[in-house]
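ARCHIVE CARD
Drawer: 12
Card no.: 0347
Subject: one protein chain, sequence and derived structure
Cross-reference: see card 0346
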Amino acid sequence: MTAMKPLGTPREQLTSVISDVRRRWRHKMALRGGALVVGGVALILLGAALGIDALRFSPGAILGFRLP
């Protein structure tokens, strides 16, 4: 946890607290977005692998499930 600066006016202290809260919120949103992207990519790859396997690796299946 970051220590608050003991010096400064109450307005400066409030501004510092608000900026810390906003920074933590932005980091949380970035991590959540990254997790969604990684999870989505994993699901797409798993679905493509299962689809190609179910279609017995036919040339059409490979072309159909290939990423552009």
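Annotation on reverse: The mean pLDDT is 91. The CA atoms of residues 39 and 46 lie 11 Å apart.
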